[in-house]
Amino acid sequence: MTDALLQVVQGGVETIDLGRQLRVGMPQSPNHPQFWHTLPRRHGDMVRSDGSSAANDLITTGTHVGTHIDALAHVSFEGKLHGGADATESCLGGKYVEHGVHTIEPMLRRGVLLDVAGHLGVEHCEGGYEITVADLEATAERQGVTVQRGDVVLIRSGWGARFAEGAPYVGGPSGVPGVGEAGAVWLGEHGVHAAGADTIAFERLAPGGGHALLPAHRVLLVERGIYIVEALDLEGLAAAGWGEFTFVLVPMPIFGATGSPVRPLAVRSTATSTGAAS
Amino acid sequence: MTDALLQVVQGGVETIDLGRQLRVGMPQSPNHPQFWHTLPRRHGDMVRSDGSSAANDLITTGTHVGTHIDALAHVSFEGKLHGGADATESCLGGKYVEHGVHTIEPMLRRGVLLDVAGHLGVEHCEGGYEITVADLEATAERQGVTVQRGDVVLIRSGWGARFAEGAPYVGGPSGVPGVGEAGAVWLGEHGVHAAGADTIAFERLAPGGGHALLPAHRVLLVERGIYIVEALDLEGLAAAGWGEFTFVLVPMPIFGATGSPVRPLAVRSTATSTGAAS
Amino acid sequence: MTDALLQVVQGGVETIDLGRQLRVGMPQSPNHPQFWHTLPRRHGDMVRSDGSSAANDLITTGTHVGTHIDALAHVSFEGKLHGGADATESCLGGKYVEHGVHTIEPMLRRGVLLDVAGHLGVEHCEGGYEITVADLEATAERQGVTVQRGDVVLIRSGWGARFAEGAPYVGGPSGVPGVGEAGAVWLGEHGVHAAGADTIAFERLAPGGGHALLPAHRVLLVERGIYIVEALDLEGLAAAGWGEFTFVLVPMPIFGATGSPVRPLAVRSTATSTGAAS
Amino acid sequence: MTDALLQVVQGGVETIDLGRQLRVGMPQSPNHPQFWHTLPRRHGDMVRSDGSSAANDLITTGTHVGTHIDALAHVSFEGKLHGGADATESCLGGKYVEHGVHTIEPMLRRGVLLDVAGHLGVEHCEGGYEITVADLEATAERQGVTVQRGDVVLIRSGWGARFAEGAPYVGGPSGVPGVGEAGAVWLGEHGVHAAGADTIAFERLAPGGGHALLPAHRVLLVERGIYIVEALDLEGLAAAGWGEFTFVLVPMPIFGATGSPVRPLAVRSTATSTGAAS
């Protein structure tokens, strides 16, 4: 007898890719080492006796680049990580052993899109706009979805459509829209497993303010133990009108690291997927 | 109405992780840049005015490290990539645009384990042992699984249990067990989508022979367009006796690269999973 | 009997450092991988049984960062490197074997400073200003120095004082001052061994023009085989009024690379150095 | 009037290169990130409108690779760096500000070769052989050189000729010859400025012992503040019979790093250089 999951998968699934391609020169936070990829060996550089050749790669990069997930070890508050661990002593031999990204279990969970820009009827929220609890609740209501314990909630400000513009996506003078401390508390009260957004730092960045103060990071990562996913591509999801889906995210198991580039997926069975908001 | 996939996922799934942790010093092919991870910023290095601090990472690595997937751009034969593309001209601006790893679609497919070591009743096949077509067929028959078009087939030689030993895993004087050209042709004839193994180069390496000749790579990547997954951890899968499962693999979308570290998963519904071989 | 050189050195020498510190975040050309330095191991991470510990580093960087030298392999024109070598075929196995930076002999030579900003009586030449042959000749005359065959000529625009400002140093909208094609031809006619400047690209960059067209690079590197040194710190040299000195430059012998960060020195015997322009 | 130093330099100097080429795959200590160099852009990848193109590099590497210098920040003993600085607190924001490699002044000093292998009449000292104080003194006497305060002393075991062999150079089972604690104390008592050797760790490594205990590092770096230069190529110097020379070493000014690859030079005036031991 075929496994129930495999049966549905073999019945056909449709996938929407929520991850950005990793490309040299893409916008990223200036706080992290730049993503670089190069080919040390190209075809023809060294041909084997049997006529074959192999090309290969060298990558050098921060982990908080492209679409990525923050491990709990990424942020501390008053010297403590989530659960009260001492932030200095948690680093053993140059690795965050306890709350590193290798401790994040792969996710196959209910995902929910809150398309705030869609609800507000704007192409994208303005730079520096704080998405309020009222915005989140009105969006959920309009979409007819509820946020449940264990969900992964993805918040669309529409700012992600600016990724291709480069520097403006990162914010700087304009700031970046997103939830603030209040929105993070709301997510925490709903017991979500992870929260994501289509912006570089998940939360609202004040115009000109850079990444100096990140209260939502403190609330989610330190106080609540909720993972954050950043720089998602939510345009396809919004266009398809998927409000609820299976969310798949598999972090790279980098021992002791504070984050990982990821390529999350939204998946639905083609047997039942209607293309309308659930 | 809930999507059929989400319904099964919310009913409960069990996941077996097939990916190796990415750790500094792990065994890897000497042909590729070594995996390194370090923390440029640790907690306490720079505390913000609000009492928070952020730690971050720098990674430098080849892409064919840890558990990883080979893109079709990885290997050429007589100057051609899969489909006859000119191997030199396929590199545009230092990127393999056509057959790069960014072109590999995420996989949610039927996965099949062929536990050759289990069938042969050995802890692991010897270094340099060529797994024959007869071995593959006898293993499948004994397990009661059939290989179908579009499957991902994972071949367990048992050699993967030596990963923790370091250098011996890579082979060198001992060689490494695996399929040869004949096994690759057999996989191709079954129309598999991807093939994987618990060894560093997927295919048999002759004792002392290094990675000089890789005929199975030629057959799979160049002639058939079948992806190869290497350095899988198949011990848990064999111990659980899963012969058939949903295989999930999401390559990092590195534009123009020849491969990507991956963390593949075997997943089953807990509603029906019995722990016995399917 | 003591060697004549050693005798002078032991009599006392004074050194002016012409190289920039390599620091994370320093201004650099956006065309090259960013300079990063981090400590994988800090003291205390792993203490040996005898009470000692060792800290170490990981660097990831382009070679055209900080103060650096361009090898002849850096630039081609119409498919040719200096001396007519085919630019594509000169790359063997991913290395520029013939004109790579490893072929640059260490320099202990006569160095000459042409302090154009000092001559013009400006703090720095304006962004986009082209330093003319007349400027170079008038500066040399005013300083009482002549440019001789085999010299290393350092051209000070004063722009180097802006290094600490970061982005403005790189130019962008403002452009950057420097010689153009005519100045490069003049240097070539004087048979100099290498030429340097206190700017990021040695030559004039038009306002808003970026690094799109670099005629002086073509003249010097391709046509004449003259090395170029960029991002020099010439402020101390100008302040000391040294017009003539022993120039010491030792490139890193990176096999097959197109450039190298360097730390050039101007050196004088303290027995004779007067602090006045020579 | 020409500066005395420049006068000698223009009279002609002969240089012996003491630095190893930096090549992918060269032997290096397994404790440090591997040296890698690759070309992200090759000629032809992107040709500008004027017919020119530029190739460039990406380097990723430890600093204790190739011929390199150890900064005082490299080693601590019982929690202290040289001068008693607290080893943990000396790391500010991820940089060794006080004793980092950027604090090493460029060297133009008297250099002395102690050709121990030459004195002992062996091709190279055996792996694990401890070069004694008696060896050092007999070598100096036989060569007719004295070690003076402020000198840079280079100790040749002959092991450097094995660099091209790869792994055997690093030692492992065989160990590596070099001075031990007693030799380091002797160097300290002579007040040398820096000490170098033609081996990977400067000091004797016991057969099979790896780099676990490094007493000479403690004596020189921590107790005496004497820099260590490793993996020198001393073959040319010994062949030329230079016992005394001007030693030129310019570390890369990497802010806060524990070491730097270097390319030291031995230089003599051709006017007086006789090719015989001084």
Given the helix and strand composition of chain A, which structural class is it?
alpha/beta
Question: Taking Cα atoms only, what radius of gyration of chain A do you get, to the nearest Å?
Answer: 20 Å
CA distance, first residue to last residue of chain A:
31 Å
Q: Helix amount of chain A, in percent?
A: 10-25%
Provide the succession of SSEs of chain A. HEEEEEEEEEHEHEHEHEHEHEEE
Chain pair sharing the greatest interface = A-B, 98 and 98 residues
Number of strands of chain A: 17
Chain oligomer state = homotetramer
Task: Please give the order of strands in the largest beta sheet of chain A.
Answer: 1-17-15-9-11-13-14-5-16
**Model regions low in confidence, pLDDT < 50 over at least 5 residues of chain A:** 273-278
Mean pLDDT over the full residue set of chain A? 95
What is the count of DSSP helices of chain A, taking H or I runs of 4+ residues?
7
Strand fraction of chain A equals 25-35%
